[in-house]
Design brief:
With about 110 residues, the chain is mainly α. The protein has helices at about 5-45, 70-80, 85-95. The chain contains three helices and no strands.
């Protein structure tokens, strides 16, 4: 003999509720993403231009260790002729240090 009808009905009801909860979770996650995008757009439109209103998310002073820029420049000055030390040499140092040089400003000058 099979299981009682009450148990089968309750299991079906449980399965429907689980599916409903999963669907609602997806809808909530989509609504939260939409809300964050709308909030960010509002924040951008409400800016007055003061740099303190839109701070950097990372501490730019901590990209390189203390004194690392000075050390790189001194090493470059010691290895190259001081008269031929141009801005492009600095770009090469940045690239050697593991950073990508994207569109340097000085290339158009």
């Amino acid at each position: 003999m099979g299981e009682p009808i009450v148990i089968l009905a309750l299991r079906r009801k449980r399965d429907r509720i689980e599916v409903s909860i999963a669907g609602n979770k997806r809808k909530i996650e989509a609504a939260q993403a939409d809300l964050s995008h709308v909030t960010a757009s509002l924040r951008l439109l409400e800016l007055s231009g003061d740099p303190s209103e839109f701070p950097a998310y990372i501490d730019l002073n901590r990209i390189l260790r203390r004194g690392e820029i000075t050390g790189l420049c001194m090493a470059a000055l010691n290895t190259h002729n001081r008269a031929s030390f141009f801005r492009l040499d600095i770009a090469a140092l940045v690239a050697l240090n593991g950073f990508r040089v994207l569109a340097p400003i000085w290339q158009n000058q």
